[in-house]
Amino acid sequence: MNNLYSFNNTDFDYITNIDHTLLQLSLNRKGLANGPSEAAVKRRGPRTILDLKRMDSEKWIKYVQWTEIEFKRLKLLDKIQVAMGKKTDNNDIESSGLQEIWDKIEKTIKNASKKFIPTKKIK
After folding, report:
1. Backbone conformation region of residue 30, classed left if phi is above 0, alpha if psi is from -120 to 50, else beta
2. Could you tell me the CA-to-CA distances from 68 to 16, 65, 81, 99, 123 in Å, in that order?
3. DSSP 3-state assignment of 85?
4. DSSP bridge partners of 10
5. 79: closest CA among 94, 91, 90?
6. Residue 33: exposed, middle, or buried by beta-carbon count in 10 A (0-12, 13-18, 19+)?
7. Contact, 44 vs 115, CB < 8 A?
8. What is d(CA 63, CA 2) in angstroms, rounded to the nearest whole number?
9. pLDDT 10s digit of each residue in the chain, 123 long?
């Protein structure tokens, strides 16, 4: 839990005469309930989602082929191998290089989804 600030488990048997303990915890309020309100969700209107039920094997093949072509065009496999070769002092892989690669993979997959997967609107 990211909002847990501190906790203390106190032995309480001298008061209650049982083996239970008292758990005291402090929470940070910021971001504790950060979801949108129901009214905000209603105002936002319908959302567009991917309609995977309307995908057939031909559409999936086009999706995969386009994605593979983009990965090759971006030379992602080469970049992954280079990043794997760059080790830090404690033998970890450089995270900034991997993050850049992951961002390109994510963007390619999202673009392929928009291009080849049908969508539908929901409330």
Report:
1. beta
2. 66, 5, 17, 19, 34
3. helix
4. 22
5. 94
6. exposed
7. no
8. 37
9. 566 667 777 777 666 677 777 777 777 776 666 677 777 767 777 888 999 999 999 999 999 999 999 999 999 888 888 877 776 656 566 666 778 888 999 999 999 999 999 999 987
- Give the start-to-end residue ranges of the domains of the chain: 1-34, 44-122
DSSP bridge pairs for 120: 49
What is the DSSP secondary-structure string of 23-36? EEEEE--TTTT-SP
Please answer whether residues 74 and 104 qualify as being in contact, where contact means their C-beta atoms are separated by less than 8 angstroms. yes
Which stretches within the chain are classed as H helix?
A: 13-16, 38-44, 57-73, 76-85, 95-116
Please tell me whether the overall predicted TM-score, pTM, comes out greater than 0.90 for this model: no
d(C-alpha 39, C-alpha 111), whole Å: 31
Angle between helices 76-85 and 57-73 (to 10 degrees): 50
